[in-house]
Specification:
- The structure is a single chain.
- By secondary structure, the protein is mainly alpha-helical.
- The chain has three helices and three strands; from the N terminus they run ββαβαα.
- Helices cover 39% and strands 9% of the residues.
- The radius of gyration is 48 Å and the shape is elongated.
- Keywords: Coiled coil.
């Protein structure tokens, strides 16, 4: 139901002169006919009606088709890259197998790890003075006192 704004010219019910209020159209007409009010200069905005728009299937739009073709192109690139990675894995497996065969066929004495501390040569011993400082000892030869 449509509301109509009226401005009161004299007291009516709880309204005083100069006040504006909204009423149903029939009651507003009665107040104007009785001389209690006049229609206000500013009327309320009518309520908006629901607007429904029928949209077709979104899959039929050009934007959707463009997006799908872009997705398919990227998917194809990913599949190609996955095939390249798989081929590289197979190649590396073959290289590893060849290296394993070479290691198995070789003399075990050909491969050894020698550490400087295992060599027995005093010139090749690790330099402990440069690597770690020695612990300070008290003058009496005992351990340092704690908690002073």
């Amino acid at each position: 139901m449509k509301k109509v704004a009226v401005e009161f010219k004299r007291s009516w019910s709880r309204y005083n002169p100069g006040e504006v209020a909204g009423f149903d159209e029939a009651q507003a007409d009665e107040l104007v006919k009785a001389g209690h009010a006049v229609r206000a200069g500013k009327q309320p905005m009518p309520k908006m009606e629901k607007l429904t728009i029928a949209v077709g299937d979104i899959r039929e739009t050009d934007a959707f088709k463009d997006a799908m073709s872009e997705i398919q192109g990227e998917w194809q690139k990913l599949e190609e890259r996955a095939n390249q990675v798989e081929a590289e894995e197979k190649r590396l497996e073959g290289v590893r197998a060849q290296l394993d065969l070479q290691i198995d066929a070789s003399d075990p004495g050909d491969f050894c790890v020698v550490d400087a501390k295992d060599s027995g040569d005093p010139d090749n011993q690790p330099d402990t003075a440069a690597g770690e400082p020695e612990a300070k000892r008290s003058g009496k030869g005992g351990l340092p006192k704690q908690g002073r």
